[in-house]
TrEMBL record:
Organism: Ancylostoma ceylanicum
Gene3D superfamilies named in the record: NAD(P)-binding Rossmann-like Domain
Name of the protein in its database record: NAD-dependent epimerase/dehydratase domain-containing protein
Length: 72
């Protein structure tokens, strides 16, 4: 399973990613900041990309979790 965790750069997102990975999932964390976690590796090549494309409708992502805070 492939999972994109939007807003997952903090403690909860990193813990969620680690738990999903322990069950065999491939995770991608998409966030403007990254707190870091011992089992999460930052891919520096991805940090320089301007555009991020996720096409869940074509089957590239099995599940989509938004952990971002909304003040609205």
């Amino acid at each position: 399973m492939r999972v994109c965790i939007v807003g997952g750069g903090g403690y909860l997102g990193c813990e969620l990613a680690a738990r999903l990975q322990s069950h065999g999932a491939h995770t991608v964390i998409l966030d403007v900041s990254f707190a870091g976690h011992p089992s999460i590796q930052l891919d520096e090549r991805l940090t320089t990309r301007i555009q991020v494309r996720i096409s869940a409708q074509h089957g590239n992502v099995d599940d989509f979790m938004d952990l971002g805070f909304s003040s609205g």
